[in-house]
Amino acid sequence: MHLSAYGIFLLTVAPLALGTPIQQRDNERLDEAVFLTTCFKYVKGNDASANGRDDKLWYFKDLKDSATGQQAYSESYASNPGDKNHPVDWKSGTETNPVEGTLDKKSFKVWGLEEKGADKTFVTGYADLGGAPMRCYSNSGATWKMDYGDKMYIKCSAKYYCTRTSRQIRRTAVTVYSTMQSVPFLGQQNFDIKNDMGVIEQIRGAFMYVTEHYNKNMADGEGITIGSKDYKMTYTVSRMEKNGDPYFEPDRIDKVAKLVAEKMVPQLWSKDKISDEKAWPSGGKLLAKATHTIPFPKQIKVQVQVAQQAMLDWEDRDVVVFEVKKGNECKDEGLLGIAIKAAFSAVSAATTGGVSAAAAGLGVIVGDSVTGSC
Predict the structure, then answer these.
(1) Which of 9, 41, 171, 336 is most buried, judged by most C-beta within 10 A?
(2) Is the pLDDT of residue 8 over 50?
């Protein structure tokens, strides 16, 4: 039986993968994955009883291939420990008597599977592929249906998948203070005060400037003036990975800047307070300008982190901190902090779905909001 692209897409794993692989791959295949699948065959028009069952192992050289329409590189029927003639009970395997199969000319064994994974790592069981140890994870949401010839169809599920124990992944954690600093901006002459693109670009530029700060090797704590009354945004950049290191990306700080600007600007602009509005006629239209007061988080901390997927002990690799200097007004904006947290969390859902992406990039994005002091 072969997979349709639709079927492969629905193998998409749950967000427990929590990251993007970070190592360079060759024949070692450190991102390889095995899916434990069960498919029932039905005659079209008769959903009451199955007309056959297959329990198979599907092997992908890279976990991300399972969600990009690629066919399994290798597949094999699985067998119960000591019983080749009955449907497979995936949870029946033990270390001494595992569920078995052969994939890519290698022996595959899986055992110790549980319904619920460990609280921290989400590991639900253990496996071995040709001597390479693996950890397994619940994948209960992966179900799909597809035609099997003209008169039949197949309903499938992949309740578990397994990846290398040594697999390294990346994520980016964004922590935003709910404590806000109000910063005034003098608007431009504009027909539409509520959408003053000049001010919006100033706000975006404040976040993007961290790239220039890094490229020019400026000192931590240096920054630029923002707004119309000498407020200042400062930057601190700490990179544990250096040029020549296997995981180093020269443009990662720029990616951080773009991420923060993309997610922060709409949230901050939604809280714009307009004052000192002035208007005058011009060419049959009404020109206007005003002061826009924008609440900036006192601090935004972005941590690009790596971990072994089977352990999830996250370590910082790059840390970028944005800070706004204290001015005349500083207050807690808890609801805005929650909205910003949600905005960053949505990045993860939209761009990864929990599936490993290309080695380059920021990985899964995790948002949080904390209260700071003025």
Answers:
(1) 171
(2) no
Among left, alpha and beta (phi > 0; psi -120 to 50; other), residue 96 is alpha
Q: Read out DSSP for 40-96? A: EEEETT--SS-S-EEEEEEEESSGGGGGTTPPPSEEEE-BBTTBSSS---GGG--SS
CB 148 within 8 A of CB 154: yes
Tell me the one-letter amino acid at 50: A
Q: What is the mean pLDDT of residues 248-262?
A: 93
Task: Give the orientation angle of helix 334-351 with respect to helix 252-269, to 10 degrees.
Answer: 130
| Average pLDDT of span 23-46 | 80
pTM, full prediction: 0.77
* Sign of the alpha-carbon torsion through 298, 302, 307, 311: positive
Residue 1's nearest CA partner among 108, 152, 109, 110 is: 152
269-283 residue pLDDT tens: 999 999 988 877 877
Q: With contact defined as beta carbons under 8 Å apart, do 113 and 124 qualify?
A: yes
Side chain identity, residue 206: A
pLDDT at residue 335, rounded to an integer: 62
For 351, phi then psi, to 5°, come to -110, -15
φ, ψ dihedrals at 336, nearest 5°: -65, -40
Query: Which candidate, 94, 92, 61, places its Cα nearest to that of 75?
Result: 61
Q: How far apart are CA 9 and CA 17, in angstroms?
A: 16
C-beta of residue 216 within 8 angstroms of C-beta of residue 266? no
Other Cβ atoms less than 10 A from the Cβ of 12: the count is 18
**3-class SS shares of the chain: helix, strand, coil, % to 5:** 20, 40, 40
Tell me the residue length of the chain: 374
Radius of gyration of the chain (CA): 26
Handedness of CA 109, 112, 117, 120 (dihedral sign): negative
Percent of the chain having pLDDT more than 90?
A: 43
312 and 15 Cβ atoms separated by less than 8 Å: no
